[in-house]
Predict the structure.
Amino acid sequence: QVQLVESGGGLVQPGGSLRLSCVASGSRVTMYNMGWYRQAPGEQRELVATKISGGSANYADSVKGRFTISRDNAKNTVYLQMNSLKPDDTAVYYCNARFFGQQIGFWGQGTQVTVSS
């Protein structure tokens, strides 16, 4: 069973930066697709960014130019560098990882990101 452990959330002022990390353990192969979703209170979970192993990244329009997703396949780890953070970025951020062909995959427990002065 694949387990995902996120870290790096916290409280930051508007305009600040945070870096999230997510490690996938329990898999003997590189996860095909790893990424980040977020859910604000009262809202549906939404895609933030995903990246296929050896492929291009996909970003939500709201974070393009501010967030950067990257992967370390040797460690089955995905990162999310978040710059120029806004209060609207406040949410619980969830890591997701999938094998090739999976529709849903595995979820982490979530890490809170709060952007507030």
